[in-house]
Design a protein that fits this description.
Blueprint: H1 5-29, H2 38-51, E1 56-64, E2 68-75, E3 78-86, H3 98-112, E4 121-131, E5 136-146, E6 155-165
Antiparallel strand pairs: 1-2, 1-6, 2-3, 4-5, 5-6
């Protein structure tokens, strides 16, 4: 049987394509894709920044294996103090200003999305609900995968209420 060069090139090209598809499809199986409405997030963040709100207060509820409930006071864009209504004030550090809330959500999304499933825990979805008047996240829910034999403790649900501008 005689094989001409054109047919051999086609066979080699097809073999290379199939090998590449196999390699890349195997990579995709281990890739973490975090479902997140980044477009709305960016729009709301920009509107918040344009409002230039620097003095405000709000109630923060952090739910998880441990909880925090407190009233956050922000002055000149910086955390001033909080009135702890329930323990574990260390939980609110990344949520102690609206700018930090936005930054934390963004960092979790970017550090998790398109990453590799290296451990038995990774984020699968970030759901954010916004206050359309003040342009702040009012409900943040981090959904995640955890392998059955892995114990997780942490806080994955945050709610902001009673937002009040002071200026």
């Amino acid at each position: 049987m005689k094989i001409n060069r054109l047919n051999l090139r086609n066979v080699v090209a097809i073999a290379i394509c199939l090998a590449a598809m196999t390699v890349f499809s195997d990579c995709k199986k281990d890739e973490v894709i975090v479902k997140f409405d980044e477009k709305t997030f960016i729009e709301q963040k920009k509107l918040w920044q344009l409002s230039n709100t620097k003095d405000y207060e709000y109630h923060l509820l952090a739910n998880g294996f441990v909880s925090y409930y407190g009233k956050i006071f922000v002055e000149n864009g910086s955390f001033k103090n909080d009135e702890i209504l329930h323990e574990y004030s260390h939980l609110m550090l990344n949520y102690s200003t609206i700018d930090l809330v936005y930054k934390t959500i963004e960092e979790i999304f970017h550090s998790s999305n398109n990453g590799t499933k290296k451990s038995g825990f990774y984020y699968t979805e970030i759901v954010v609900e916004y206050d359309k008047v003040n342009h702040i996240p009012i409900k943040i829910n981090y959904k995640y995968y955890s392998s059955p034999n892995l114990s997780i403790d942490g806080t994955f649900d945050y709610t902001i209420t009673n937002f009040n501008k002071q200026n």
